[in-house]
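Run log // design_07
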């Protein structure tokens, strides 16, 4: 009986082990490389029949592990074609959170029909990994409508208003149909004044900025006076130059006559939070109240602004000062109580200066930033107040003992 129980228990644990192997395959390992591919630019857009098309593809490693040797491949199918030698391009190693771009040149068959056609794009993390495939739509040609509504660029909103290098954010454009009446008569013929937006794409015109979204397709009809908002996610690289960058918004409307291109500006500025001492940084008897002027030198509002001072051997209260939102050119005056940290050896050194850093943290839009806003010298006492008291008492005793001894001898 005991032997049967032991065999049943052994069989049970074996089944659990087998189930766990099938439940958690190696491909589902946490932290593996994961590739995301995006078409960031189609040139020309829409693709022209009988001409070459340039596809700018971006590959991003959104996984938690390094991709050792990334390949990207276009699987051509009618009406697109490209030479067999150019179907696969190698990117190489791609660390988590990093992106890379590659260009492919496709030919659009001269007998292709206008409309939307699909294309397959494949990626793999290394030569031993399986291919991952995604299908994208590409528009060929432009359909023509008799509507006479036209589209204007009514508003541009950037969030944040002014980007810092390394920031991500959005550019939102408002398109409006300029027509005021439902119909218009041209050469004795009546036309409706609806405006069709068949497609809209945002392209960067300078280095250092990237559009993270694919084009908008088939946005439908805008009646007279109607408007629509289109939002594009954009990213400014860490090494982007300061100043005004430009995007081009290409709108495919009712017909070739009503297609348009609009210039969209985006400003980049690295100015940030400045912290300036407003009175001497000096400890007296191991204590002081240090005061700073905090200024927002960035062109737009910064949020969740906080200031944190640090110095070896010194404690500050509060540990961190939270200001909150700051308008451009706004100035705050803040105070910290500073005192020598007697538990630290650095707080018991001879008088002199200790290095003091003041760090400013803040948000520009959705982006968290941090910079050392002050690299200062804090003047310190010769020793903390308790030590000074001890020395004073010792000095009094040293004076009192010889005097008492002399008085005693005279009495004797």
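design_07 sequence
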């Amino acid at each position: 009986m005991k032997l049967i129980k032991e065999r049943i228990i052994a069989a049970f644990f074996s089944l659990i082990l087998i189930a766990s192997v099938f439940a958690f395959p190696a491909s589902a390992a946490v932290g593996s490389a994961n590739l995301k591919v995006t078409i960031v630019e189609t040139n020309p857009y829409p693709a022209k029949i009988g001409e070459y098309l340039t596809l700018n593809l971006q590959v991003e490693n959104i996984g938690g592990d390094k991709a050792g040797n990334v390949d990207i491949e276009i699987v051509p199918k009618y009406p697109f074609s490209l030479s067999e030698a150019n179907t696969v391009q190698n990117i190489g190693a791609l660390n988590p959170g990093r992106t890379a771009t590659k260009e492919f040149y496709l030919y659009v068959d001269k007998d292709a029909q206008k409309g939307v056609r699909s294309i397959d794009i494949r990626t793999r993390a290394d030569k031993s990994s399986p291919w991952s495939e995604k299908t994208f739509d590409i528009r060929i040609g432009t359909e023509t409508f008799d509507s006479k509504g036209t589209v204007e660029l009514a508003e541009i909103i950037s969030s944040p208003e002014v980007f810092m290098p390394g920031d991500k954010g959005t550019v939102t454009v408002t398109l409006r149909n300029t027509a005021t009446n439902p119909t218009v008569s041209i050469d004795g013929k009546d036309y409706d004044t609806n405006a069709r937006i068949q497609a809209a794409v945002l392209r960067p015109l300078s280095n250092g900025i990237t559009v993270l979204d694919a084009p908008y397709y088939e946005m439908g009809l805008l009646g007279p006076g109607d408007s629509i908002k289109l939002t594009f996610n954009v990213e400014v690289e860490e090494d982007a130059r300061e100043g005004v960058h430009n995007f081009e918004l290409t709108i495919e409307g009712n017909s070739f006559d009503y297609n348009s291109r609009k210039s969209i500006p985006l400003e980049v500025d690295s100015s940030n939070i400045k912290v300036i001492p407003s009175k001497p940084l000096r400890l007296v008897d191991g204590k002081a109240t240090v005061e700073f002027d905090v200024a927002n030198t960035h062109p737009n509002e910064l949020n969740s602004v906080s200031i944190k001072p640090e110095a070896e051997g010194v404690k500050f209260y509060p540990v961190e000062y939270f200001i909150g939102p700051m308008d451009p050119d706004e100035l705050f005056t803040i105070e910290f109580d500073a005192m020598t940290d007697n538990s630290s050896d650095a707080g018991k050194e001879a008088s002199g200066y200790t290095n003091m850093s003041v760090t400013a943290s803040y948000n520009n839009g959705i982006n968290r930033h941090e910079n050392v806003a002050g690299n200062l010298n804090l003047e310190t006492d010769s020793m903390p107040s308790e030590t000074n008291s001890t020395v004073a008492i010792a000095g009094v005793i040293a004076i009192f003992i010889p005097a008492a001894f002399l008085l005693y001898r005279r009495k004797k």
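The longest strand covers residues 367-380.
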